[in-house]
Amino acid sequence: MTAAQTATLGFPRIGPNRELKKAVEAHWAGKLSEADMLAAAQKVEEEAWSLQAAAGVDLIAVGDFNLYDQVLQYTDALDLVPERFAGVQRGTARAFMMARGAEGKPALDMTKFFNTNYHYNVPELRVDMEPRPAFTALLSSIKRGVAALGGARAAAVILGPVTFLHLAKFTDGGSAAAGRAALLAKLVSAYRALLRDAAALGVAELQLHEPALCAAADSAELRALYASAYPAILEALPTSGAGAAAVNVVSYFDDVDDATFAWLAALPRVAAVSLDFTRGDAVGVLARHGPLVCKTLGAGVIDARSPWRADPDTILPLLRAIRSAAGPATPIRIQPSANLQFVPVDAACEKGLHAARPAVAGALAFAAQKLRELRDVAAALAAGADGAAAAKALEAHAAAWTAFRASTSGLSGAACAAATEKRVAALGDGAFKRALPFEERVKLQLPGLPLLPTTTIGSFPQTPEVRRLRNQLKKGTIMQEQYDRAIDTHIAYAIGVQDALGLDILVHGEAERTDMVEFFGQQLEGMAFTENGWVQSYGSRCVRPPIICSDVSRPKPMTIREFKVAQSMTDKPVKGMLTGPITILNWSFPRADVDRKTQAYQLALALREEIKDLEDAGCRVIQVDEPALREGMPTRPQQKEAYLKWAVDAFLLATVGARPETQIHTHMCYCEFQDCLGAIARLDADVNSIENSRSNNSTLESFAAAGYKHLLGPGTYDIHSPVVPSVDDVAAKLRAFATAFPLERIVVGPDCGLKTRKWHEVIPALRNMVAAAAALRAEVAGTSGKGHGAAAAAAVRSNGHCC
Q: Binding residues for L-homocysteine, per the UniProt record (predicted)?
């Protein structure tokens, strides 16, 4: 049997050493012209093509590269921009403005791309909008890809129109479903032209990326959108001669249902259908429906969201099942399950990890290694029924996994899960329930706080001096004691600023923390770390996820020293700052050999110990951040509830051991929470601080409509924008909050942590936030004469101006 064809669906665009991040941020700082920034970006893009070509990939994705975010790229190219940006010339500057905001022009909302940790900028659409397509940058990228690779190896990536609309929100007050249908009808001609133009550049294939297909099983609206748009879009493509590129409809992040698969299989003018075989049950769908007829099956068997090598014990049975379900006549193409942007670029860069933990390093496969895995897995598939030959193709993978399993000190699989459940059971009735209900314990917490108490989310600016200190400690040029003393000066500064500004609940500023997950992972047993394992979170923001490689435990306290230093400097309460178990899990790369619930429970038990130590140190308010709760949720409703059950239980396992008088905060940001509000309520956090500034109060209104009974901290201003909000801006936000939620249950803070901002932005923004809260307190007191009842709140809402 001949070897299967191989293909990619996209590659990390940050560069092996974050070259794109550095170029973009230098441009924002005025140190690099737009032309030089674009030249640096093109170099990163072209080097990625060369790497894929050198690995022997048959069909290489082009057109997947952009400077900030692929959804934003299409918003700008289609000219579907909010009115506040309509007068700005389309292109790079406008796209950055929509992403970051400008004076008088708030940025687009930002949320997670399906259930990943990648963020995108949410299009703000109206039904009366008229697309004015100009895909100049995209087509230029595709043209350069064809020139670099040759047309026979280039596959143009196009974000599908239904997914684009599925990811958008409608701001004109009408039905979102009606808006999507109306705009899709207008997008048909734009996409017909885009596909013709891309095909005319000589690509071998047009990859139409439609991850929203995974949600079509549970949405009659989505099914209708696909059924109406695709025949009309595809019918204009030539079937022979110039511009006759093959069409591949690509789905990922889950399986598709039987009806959707049948529709895909019957689509005319479609030569290939690509499915994700690493999540859901795509094999079952394929087996029930029957083989594809006259189409190639793009088999996404290389997990694009995991850093682990393909395990022969898993992938060989999977290949056999796919071949059996697809039938002998269906051509199978081996490819990653999705764009490889969700994993770091190259594990070969991890010299330190290879030296310190060679068995762990040997079992890793980042994007560059996954390119070679495509060839190995294709050879295993070609071996067919010859099990020995198939195993031979993956011999190096088997050896790596054998070495890894021998090196880990922890239990594996069912034994690991059973041991963890035994530890939880030993906690008895207090494992998942606080000693007092919220209504009783809140009366005991932080007495003396004013109406609309002010705080921040946790972090303060990570200055060059702080980064220099970390680098010196890492290199051994300063000792730990010297480092701690220097960090204490930054803690003192942060406490002094907050005291001077008049905030009510303070934070120590997290100067010692590189990243909210990495910091804790470095102090836990069972985690491995990379030097250069960066992945893009949003825009130029990159993170370096820890890799869970063994059983997780806490050998010693993690945050007590810095809390004690901060609390000794003020009489006001200082938060203990922790990252929650689900966020550590979802923002790390989990083990491949143990279920995620078990790993979450292990993390929760470690945090439970930390909370007890914080309380013993005198901490009265502890924040356990869970911004990643929503993003780990499966796309299919039938799987969602099972995930939310154990995810919430993990948070409870970490927090419910706290004393009733200890106020537990959490923080959530940049997700659509509407479909998991019940789970958020079950977290039973005393205060939940949420991102709200970009969502036009819709997030807050959703919590109110769901009858949320705990304290809530809606973000008053956007920390991702350099714009400093005025007192009136923040007061208007607070007044708008009062239209949806009782003022007496609102805690005032920014949208998120402030580590990415500069002190000269942070201090005036917080000063204005504190002044706005004080002004509203004065309004309430002046209106009611006492207290802050409903009548006073109504008067505040109706006021048009503050101070």
A: 457-459, 625
